[in-house]
Amino acid sequence: MNTIKLTQINHKNKKQAQDLTYLLNQYAQDPMGGGKALPKEVLENLADELAKVEEIAKAKGCCKITLEVLSNNEVAKASYVKYGFKGYELDPKAGHAIFWEKNLVT
């Protein structure tokens, strides 16, 4: 039986940062991730920038960080819960949230 080992990424560890960038780029190339590789400048800065998200949000006085996850992606949802995220619902009178996008790269 295979064993899965979960490790919190140390963004300052070059090997772990490279592994994280690799995995996220592989996801981006999958149809579920958009089907395109991440641009070179994103790949070069991804690990450092991800490490700063919560710090920057707090410094700017943001009230929350939101993210998007597919309802059937139980592995991702479990990971997000581990880092303090939880599902939320809007007031039903306001309607339900929907995602829109505007591609900036053609």
Concise summary:
This protein has 106 residues and is an all-alpha fold. It contains three helices and no strands. It has one domain (14-94).
Mean pLDDT metric: 84
Number of strands: 0
How many domains in all? 1
Q: Span from first to last CA? A: 44 Å
- C-alpha-based Rg, rounded: 16 Å
Q: So how many helices?
A: 3
The outline comes out as globular
What is the N-to-C order of secondary-structure elements (H for helix, E for strand)?
Answer: HHH
Alpha-beta content class: mainly alpha
The proportion of strand residues reads under 5%
Which spans have pLDDT < 50 for at least 5 consecutive residues?
A: none
Share of helix, binned: 40-55%
Q: Sheet bearing the most strands, described?
A: none
Features:
single chain; 106 residues; mainly alpha; 0% strand; globular
Your description of this structure?
The protein is mainly α and 106 residues long. The chain has one domain (14-94). Helix content is 42%, strand content 0%. The radius of gyration is 16 Å and the shape is globular.
